[in-house]
Amino acid sequence: MTTTDVLDKAPAAAPVRGGRRRSATLLAGCTLTGLIALLALVSLVWLPYATDDTSGGRLAGPGGGHLLGTDKLGRDLFTQLMTGSRIALAAGLGSVLTAALIGVTLGVLAAFAQGWLDDTLAAFLDILIAFPTLLLAMLVVAARSATLGSAVLAIGLAQSAVVARLVRILVKRVLAQDYITAARTSGTSWPRTVAGHVLPNIWPTLVVNLALQFGLAVLAEAGLSYLGLGAPPPNASWGRMLQEAQATFTTAPAGALAPGVLLVLLVVGVNLIADGLRDTLDPATRQRRS
User: Fold this and answer.
1) DSSP summary character for residue 15
2) CATH, range 24-42+71-283
3) In whole angstroms, what is the distance from residue 71 CA to residue 256 CA?
4) Would you call the peptide bond into 283 cis, given omega within 30 degrees of 0 as the criterion?
5) Are 34 and 49 contacting, i.e. CB atoms less than 8 angstroms apart?
6) Over the stretch 240-262, which tens digit does the pLDDT of each residue have?
7) Are 219 and 267 a contacting pair, CB within 8 Å?
């Protein structure tokens, strides 16, 4: 979904009011995402085997103490899936938090720019958005080393430009409203105006976009790990599991199917949450769909 798609569904700039309702879409998304989050939480306190335990035998099938079998090194696949869920969620959350911190700050500042400065900042954000995430990741990895932190930083920086452009457009729309003029006329400072009037009116659309960015970050981390630019061994990233299992797919398909299915379920779950949040937080959308 592009920034334009999100803006088309954005609520009219008016004081944010309460009014929440559960939606089937939101419930389904929370269920899928919650199951994987539960798997990640359990992995913090219990794992069937150690992540570097290779005593299971090479490419063993399900059974014999191994729920999904083992990989080509004899490691338990279910153990790797559990630790991989932790890495996927950490990558998604870390990237989104980085993108939100940088993007919201830059977007708000850019919204107050005028004339040539406004055009320059808009062009700069467009260039950042067009900059390939993979190339940025390679630059970050070259400067730091291939770690999960490097991947999160690279993905967060790439996504911050998308968030900044969205925030810039939303803030400019809110600043044009009469209640902003009234607040300024009454003597309210710009920082208090932004905190009390601007941010509360853009957050519904911003939250939906950040939820979408979470899913994209999970996919990006899996892609980087597949290429060896993510979390290094013995960290069992789903992307790394896919890369390691591609040579043995015909003889042991579970090694590729299991992380692939969980990756799809997590991304679908997060996207359903984003769709449900849009329905819940945007009164206009609820009216159109009712």
Assistant:
1) -
2) 1.10.3720.10
3) 10
4) no
5) no
6) 999 999 988 888 899 999 999 99
7) yes
Contact 271, 217 (CB under 8 A): no
Q: Angle 100-201-206 (CA atoms, 0-180°, nearest 5)?
A: 30
**Count of CA atoms in the C-beta half-sphere (13 A) of 284:** 11
| Cα distance between residue 140 and residue 18, in whole Å | 42
CB 215 within 8 A of CB 36: no
Q: pLDDT of 134-175, one tens digit each?
A: 788 778 877 888 889 999 999 999 999 999 999 999 999 998
Residue 146 token pair: 């291939």
Choose among 167, 264, 153, 157: nearest CA to 208.
167
| % helix, strand, coil for the chain, step of 5 | 70, 0, 25
